[in-house]
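Please, structure for the following, as tokens.
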Amino acid sequence: MSTIKVNGELYKIIVKNGAVSLRNNYKLIDQLNVFPVPDGDTGTNMSMTIEAGVAALENEVETSIYAMAKKFSRGMLMGARGNSGVILSQFFRGIYKGLDGFEEVGAKEFAKAFKRGVEQAYKAVMKPVEGTILTVCREASEYALKKVSKKSTIDEFFELFLTEAYASLERTPDLLPQLKDAGVVDSGAAGFIKIIEGMQKAINGEILEHTEAESVVTSTVSRGSFNAHSELTYGYCTEFILQLQHSKVDIASFDESTITSQLEQLGDSIVCFKDEDIVKVHVHTKTPGVVLNIGQKYGEFITMKVENMSVQHNESLEIQEQCDCEQCVEMRAKQERKKYAVVAVASGAGLVSIFKSMGVDYVVSGGQTMNPSAEDFVTAFDSINAENIIVFPNNSNIIMAAEQAGKYYDKANIVVIKTKSIAQGYSALTILDFSSDDLEQIKESIQEVITNVTTGLVTYSIRDASIDGIEIKKDDYIGIINGRMVASTNNKVETVKKMLTGTDLSEKYIIAVITGVDALPNETEEILAFISENYPDIETDVVDGQQEVYSYILSLE
């Protein structure tokens, strides 16, 4: 049976099916990486972005397709991660705008809305690149709009759309030489097609179920560096909602100070308030069991959460000194308003600690393989009471999410500095100076520094490849300078040496060597000795970054 119209209820079904389709294939999309390095995250970013949109529709029963599409778009907007995720969120934002005024639409109106989505996606990218998700969205949308008529069914629209999308995807390597060199098609475009495939299957009556083993893990908890020898430094973030019980207390006369006076002896960051027969409690304490026992003297728990703030979250090595629960964010925001504040992205306990010591007010956890969402940046902004917030994304795939968050944030002036690497961010922080009190001058000084930074990366290869004339074997250590492959050997130190030898260092004065979790002290010493012997006029600075993925990050300036 053909589908003639799409209303809000059906729209919710098809986008949810599209999300499941991508979720079940996100690892395959991650593997479509130009460089054979273990940081492919396009599928992950796109899946987490569209899942945020689906989550926003969980309890929605709108019959209007416009209203449903608007809520879906808003969820994606805040959950957008990585460039591909931001572009995807903007595409669906354009779709909802194209559905304005409609309760339901046929194939022709639906096709026009998709075309509007393309326009919005292109508008969101400062320098659109063909051979990417943008191209496939555009060519498939234009083809489907041209072919459908007012008599066409929604089934026919999706058939036409996917026919051209598949053909467009196969053409992406012809538009981007780096795709052809790597022997892959564009990953963002491939992920987009998985979404459309899922939407089409829903129209055809095939509702997908996600493969549990392949589902995207959006939040993981690991003991990280907290082990049998660790000390409980930061305590536990303890929260609960308490239902007061008539059998335990006179609810009408009960005052929350009864609980607060006891918590003051056990911890800090205390928030406690009563709302009729409910009490909400938040406290940082080293004895959460005692806190819970106090609460249970007056009622029973509706919800509770206890988190060790020294344990690492989201596969990051960042020690959670800054609790991001609602109460802590609110309390930090009430601090005295500053003229300037800094937000930076980093992962690795060493980098996080160093960035904070260099004046960063809030470190957003993330980087390669773990791009933060727009909402993560909003949380950071909300945690800082400042007139101007300067943001260092420190990754080219994070810049768009930071800019998207800044665009819709109206409580402060957000200035996103387009740092494309940790090396650029580190160098920028070394010269950061607010004494001039001139924002434009501050921005110019930062830009001048990052423009002169050369970034070197050392990681390992996950497959055989031939890129930029360099023959690479699986498990080789590879060296990348400013996005260009320059070295591949079976030894990370030799890779660093080849990187430096093949780079013009005549105008460089300092090299910061940022060491990863797998960098051994003797290897770092050998690298420093090589620099000292061959480049005696260049100073070196060793930074214990403890980052994943990259054994060494070099900042050459």
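Residues 213-223, 312-321 have pLDDT under 50 and may be disordered. The chain has four domains: 6-213, 236-308, 333-451, 454-556.
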